[in-house]
Sequence to fold (222 residues):
Amino acid sequence: MYAASPLAADRSPDQFRRTAAVALDIDAVLCDLVGGCRATCAEFLGVAPEELSLGDNYYVPWEHKDPALTARLAPVMLDMWSRERTILGAMPVAGGLALASTIAAAGRLRSYITRRPPEVDFLTARWLREHGFPLDGVELHHVGGTNACKSVTARAVGAELLIDDSVHEATSALANGMHVVMVAMPYNRAAAIELAATYGDRFHDAADTAAALAAVTPEASS
Ligand SMILES: [Mg+2]
Fold:
């Protein structure tokens, strides 16, 4: 069970963020699953990748420039998330490998944690391995299909800080006592303002994955 670091009380929020044990989300933070899905939609539905954009709805994020087509394709496109072609064809997010490697090298990466369904865990592991993400000593948790928020698992493995793009996960992690670095996406902008106002220095809004790395590494300037 999670136990607070004895040093936690001695660290400022900024120091805490730069030294904390981390649970790391995968999609949108490390893996451009949106890009993988665009490619899969092009392959299987004939929808050109450039015609799909990421909207502001986390759960139905796909938008086609033709709203009528968006409505018709939405259920089909949701299925694209967990396809082998989508997952294995997705590229790393810029800065994602540096983020994971830096934290792991410092012995701070406790877990990759994703809301992907458990059925694709072998694909996730393969993708991480093929792109050089550190796996030794790092747990990999798939929490899709459960109602439990990621922070339950994250705290159980000793993580103090969650790096994620999901409003739901960020909110529950903060409520559960963790610090959060949120990677900015179109669907989390309004919530970022509210979370910063509510949780102060325990919440950090990062413009992208590279900014998240800068926010959590001791050597980066604040
Ligand atoms: Mg994510």
The chain has a mean pLDDT of 88. The chain has two domains: 8-30+93-216, 33-89.
